[in-house]
Amino acid sequence: MSAHQTNHHRASDHEPELEIYDTTLRDGAQAEDVSFSVEDKIRIALKLDELGIPFIEGGWPGANPKDIEFFQTIKTVPLQTARIVAFGSTRKASNTVSTDPNLKALLDAGTETVTLFGKSWTLHVTDALGTTLAKNLELIADSIAYLRDQGRRVFYDAEHFFDGFKTDPDYALHSILRAAQAGAERIILCDTNGGSLPWEIQEIFSLVKRECPVPLGIHAHNDAELAVANSLVAVQAGAVQIQGTINGIGERCGNANLCSILANLELKMGHSVLGKGRLSQLRNVSNFVAEIANLQPYKRQAYVGETAFAHKGGVHIHAVQKNPVTYEHVVPESVGNQRRVLISDNSGRSALLTKIRSFGLSLPKDHPRLNVLLDKMKILEHEGFQFEGAEGSFELLVRKALGSHQPSFDLLGFRIIVEKRHADETPISEATIMVKVGEVVEHTAAVGRGPVNALDNALRKALEHFYPQLQDVKLLDYKVRVLAGNHGTGSKVRVLIESGDQKGSWGTIGVSENIIEASWQALADSIEYRLLRDERCSDEGDARTGGT
Fold first, then answer.
1. Which of 73, 156, 291, 400 has its CA 20 to 30 A from that of 86?
2. Mean pLDDT, to the nearest integer, of 500-526?
3. Bridging pattern class, strands 410-419 and 428-437
4. For position 280, what pLDDT does the model report?
5. Domain 371-402+467-548 shares a fold with domain 409-462
6. Distance between CA atoms of 444 and 433, rounded to whole angstroms?
7. Would you identify the CATH topology of the domain 371-402+467-548?
């Protein structure tokens, strides 16, 4: 028996629990203005794993080289709770299962579980696939059976199921029964066009549940602003698996928003789906994904938005200070958010203290430096800093404010020259930098593919003599966002940099009207954080060995 078969056997020994299936990396990546790199997808997968998501759909390995690389890379990444799932379609009518490139790519992805989608709506069979209704049933059945024979668990996404059921209920039902007979372990009913209403979902789901012998799931799109409602109604009707994306990102109007679904399931419907205490990470994950996707977080998003628990009206503030239940339907901290009284200087204090303690720093609630740090944060946030996705910079900010960190180097100055010699040639970038480490001044220069890359190369070159471990640090990603467009090219920009080495990755941030200055802030923090990590590990080692 293969490893895949062993895991399948184990999973079938008991009645399945309610399970969350995240498709941010595949369906979410189809959103307008979203383009994840492989490194982005790895970082998000790790964050979802930390949240406790059991299934993460990594992408469509037969669709593009990026997804193929992701599935190869993620095999080397240790995950604690999540299983990576490959997604793809049933075989083409002109191919056999053994020669179909899509099925081969799904197998090559090496995942224990594969999600296969097929057609449930007669319109799509005849107009989109251009085949017969009987042939479509054959494609569904033998594709699933083939993957099962290869030792894979199979989830079957019944695409456009609700529209198909409204048009021809017998055929739609027959299509999923063939999938079940072929060995699919989950049948996910998809509202692909996102136009169904909650009472339609509930009625159809209840009917199908009586006929289908395997557990059902729901995959809803948000074209009628009902994806979350439709998902929750499906749970009431017996859905075992709920699919969606973080922040509801996805094609057209998006997918079902897992942030709202998770909070509603746990806080309103009594389902424990993530594990004890993990729901409190929800806002952090929401903001992290938004930052990596280079999207502005939606301030008014339910549960996790910045203003979800913000109070400004005098009557509201007065009531909330007496009893928060008066104007808050859940405890903000339960989803990792915080109450904000917009005219108060005390907002965010407890959340900040919790974060400080997560860095291994012990600080009493009345410590005077806490107020200094709060004031500093408010100033920086007003200037455009956001530390979600840039925890390296945030920890440095905290440690500097508390006096527990000294810079590893001082910048004395830098200069960048960008020269374009001919109209049809790529510009040449050269950076010169002068830094001071202790009492030693280092002055060096380097070239790069652009001004920021040249500055990064020059900084590394100047410091590697003092800190050889920096040779392992790589700049993995670089994002720029214009914060306000009303000043044209003079607008402030936020630069987010992801750096990494063999032990992990970290994000840093910079904000300025000058893109080079913003980039410098993020680059300098990146180096400082890497050296801080060494310092922290050394301190922990001394503590374990009794050293000083």
1. 291
2. 92
3. antiparallel
4. 96
5. yes
6. 6
7. Double Stranded RNA Binding Domain (3.30.160)
Q: What is the pTM of this model?
A: 0.69
CB 376 within 8 A of CB 397: yes
409-462 to CATH, choices 3.30.160, 3.10.20, 3.30.1150, 1.20.1250: 3.30.160
| Pairing relationship of beta strands 428-437 and 440-448 according to DSSP bridges | antiparallel
Closest by CA position to 527, among listed 401, 377, 364, 393: 393
The CA-to-CA distance between both ends of the chain, in Å, stands at 54
* Rounded Cα gap, residues 267 and 329, in angstroms: 10
Report the pLDDT averaged over residues 85-105: 96
Cβ neighbours of 303 (radius 10 Å) = 24
Q: Read off the pLDDT of residues 175-186 as tens digits, 9 standing for 90 and up.
A: 999 999 999 999
The closest alpha carbon to 468, from 412, 536, 399, 530, belongs to 530
What residues have CB less than 8 Å from 339, skipping those under 6 apart? 309, 310, 311, 320, 324, 328, 332, 347
Count of Cβ atoms closer than 10 Å to residue 77 Cβ: 11
Residues 19-292, CATH architecture: Alpha-Beta Barrel (3.20)
Q: Identify the pLDDT of residue 540.
A: 52
388, pLDDT greater than 80: no
Distance between CA atoms of residues 437 and 444, nearest Å: 14
Q: Are 184 and 154 in contact (CB under 8 A)?
A: yes
Mean pLDDT score, 471-500: 82
Domain ranges of the chain: 19-292, 371-402+467-548, 409-462
Report how far residue 22's alpha carbon sits from residue 28's, in angstroms, rounded to the nearest whole number.
9
Q: Please answer whether residues 245 and 41 qualify as being in contact, where contact means their C-beta atoms are separated by less than 8 angstroms.
A: no
As a dihedral over the C-alpha atoms of residue 387, residue 390, residue 391, residue 397, rounded to 10 degrees, the angle is: -60
pLDDT (0 to 100) of residue 488: 58
Angle CA 393–396–401, to nearest 5: 125
Bridge partners (DSSP) listed for residue 495? 480, 510
Location of structure tokens 């000043």: 487
Token pair 């958010």 in the structure block, residue: 337
Looking at residue 385, what is its pLDDT? 87
Burial label, 379 (beta-carbon count in 10 A; 0-12, 13-18, 19+)? exposed
* C-alpha span between 376 and 370 (Å, rounded): 10
